[in-house]
Amino acid sequence: MITVITATFNAANTISEAMQSIRSQTYPNIEWIVIDGGSTDGTVQILTTNEDIVDYWSSEADSGIYDALNKGIDRAQGDWILFLGADDRLAKDDVIEKIFAQPKMGDEMLIYGDVRYENAIAPFLSNISVKTLFTTPCITRGLFTAGSYSMRDGGMTRASN
Q1: Measured between alpha carbons, how far is 10 from 14 in angstroms, rounded to an integer?
Q2: Torsion over CA of 118, 123, 125 and 131, rounded to 10 degrees?
Q3: Which end of the chain is more exposed for a tag (fewer CB within 10 A), N or C?
Q4: Can you give the pTM of this predicted structure?
Q5: Region 10-35 average pLDDT
Q6: Which residues pair with 81 in a beta bridge?
């Protein structure tokens, strides 16, 4: 099973695209956990009317995104964890299947894929080096983490500035 964790706060304008992205995946064994920080904009209503795709969700005040992601990690049942922002979407309907429907890959603990950022000016593709991946606090987009390794043991911490 693959667990997708989404932390939200007042994401009613964007979460539907993330939801459709999960819903349209061809990989059959996805657990989606949404941890909401107490939204007041209709996010909770969207989650309530889409409980067929959301395996677990909660809405309560939290201490920020890392607190929410840790709550999701605590609930995760998957062999792999992916963090998907409420304003993000998976690039193609078969992206998870292409990664995980293959024979056992080995002892990998992290799998990183390219991320395409889009904005009103122009889209661009991130090219993050291995050095950047391991020296930058909490790069989560495009990163699958082995559930047995993940951050379950120590949790995520807020980066100091």
Answers
A1: 9
A2: -70
A3: C
A4: 0.77
A5: 95
A6: 3, 145
